[in-house]
Amino acid sequence: MSTTRRITATAVAVLALTLTACATPRADAPAAAPPPPKLGDVRPAPPASDIVAQGTVMDDAGEISLCTGHMTMIYPPQCSGIPLDGWDWAVADGEESAEGRTWGTYAVTGGFDGERITVTAPPIPLALYDPMAPEDPTGGMPGKTDEATLAEIQQTVTDRLGDEVQVAYVENGYVHVQVLWDDGTYQDAADAEFGDDVVIVTTLLQPVS
Cα–Cα distance between 126 and 94 in angstroms, integer? Predict the structure, then answer.
């Protein structure tokens, strides 16, 4: 073999070894970080302390729940909501009754286990309830995402979260989504998937301060 051929063969062998070394990960190399979970793949843990929620308490033949969304327009009204344990009409004021149903609007304090609320304090009629206004998470600044993209994101969020969504709408450059309960889990997932300052998640159940 000529000198030129030997040099060429050696160079090819060295290049092949170099490429093999580059393509083979080290045994002690750290594992790649998993992708962040998408909105809908994660669920917040129940609150560790009491929450307060506003809505209509409906007692339908002894089945008592807190309705936070749609009420029928018929009389007496009907709705479905979060089951309430430990409710006592004797300590509630302002209720109405008709045709086997009793109802009234209240701020309800209690523990939430992810499915039910256990009442831990006397309810306050909403006519007398004056909570502090929540801070605007946008700081009053408009968002920068176009309307068409926001509409698609709104549909994606409502499809994935289903009944968890109390209300969702596009306003001032953001998708605003109110869920029953969030400890930041939904907001973090939305930020990771859609970017910061695109989806604003608020929670209906508020921790007792």
Answer: 10
The confidence band for 16, taking pLDDT boundaries of 50, 70 and 90, is: very low
Place of tokens 């289903």: 162
Q: How far apart are CA 201 and CA 174, in angstroms?
A: 10
**What count of other Cβ atoms lies within 10 Å of the Cβ of residue 192?**
14
* Residue type, position 51, single letter: I
Q: What is the pLDDT of residue 9?
A: 46
pLDDT in tens, 105-122: 999 999 999 999 999 999
Q: Quick one: pLDDT at residue 99? A: 92
Question: Global pTM?
Answer: 0.78
CA distance 179 to 199: 12
